[in-house]
Amino acid sequence: MCRPFFLSCLVLLVAVCTASAKEKHFEQLRVLLIADAAKCVTCHEQPDGKALNLYGRQLESMGKDETLADRILKLEAEAPLEAKAPVRKKIEQNHDVDRDGVANWIEILGGTNPGRDDSVPPAAEVQRIKSAVSCTTCHTLVNGPGEGLAANPHNELGKKLATTFVTKREKGRPVARPVGPEAIAEAAERTPILTRLAMNKTKKPKNGKATFWERLLMRRSTIDPKQEPTSRELSALRREQGRRKKKTSREKEYGISSKAHPLDGFLLDAKGLVD
Fold this sequence. Notes:
By secondary structure, this protein is an all-alpha fold. It is built from 14 helices and two strands. It has a two-stranded antiparallel ribbon with strand order 1-2. Strand 1 and strand 2 (173-174) form a beta hairpin. Helix 7 (104-110) crosses helix 8 (123-132).
């Protein structure tokens, strides 16, 4: 691929989340972050070579006729609750192809190689990524008392995404905008989650300086004020994002949106987030 959960209870929350009706939301967000952080050597033996490493070969085995986005999603997806032990074991082994004890996606977001067992991020970085990229990205609680949203209340980002929607057009004319909380929620559910995230790209938590998306890129909690990046950190991120948007200054090792690997599948819903 050229370019380019700290406590056990949080792991449990993630497992519950990914087994719920919203599992695709979280899993697609995770693939989006993988797409942003991936480098040539995430999948290839060499930055300028075609030979695949262990992770790349595993991705290739997920189905050559499927889009790269869907293959990553399939490889990293959690096992269904109803999966039998042998199936569950195989799925879980796919989550750590080099058997170094750190999940593929965490390695990619942490800047190490998921296809090499001698390349792992520091333990503190692993815990930081797990805590930032989880169900709590959009929820204050998962599987709490009650049912539905009462059991899984949204945080500030979650509330914005739950009221963000795209209005379709019929015969060239816009359809009437939904009115009322229920209609708005239904319209939001019909809008792909990554599209909703892209539409909120510039939104910030209350009294925050970094946007929700920037905080995710920095592996920070989307709402915790204690994890607000410093002005220097934020400026560095924005400079890097600016370089990566320009063909003349983008590092060649990044290229999931390059000619060799253009964005595909559901990642096209995230237009404007990964370029």
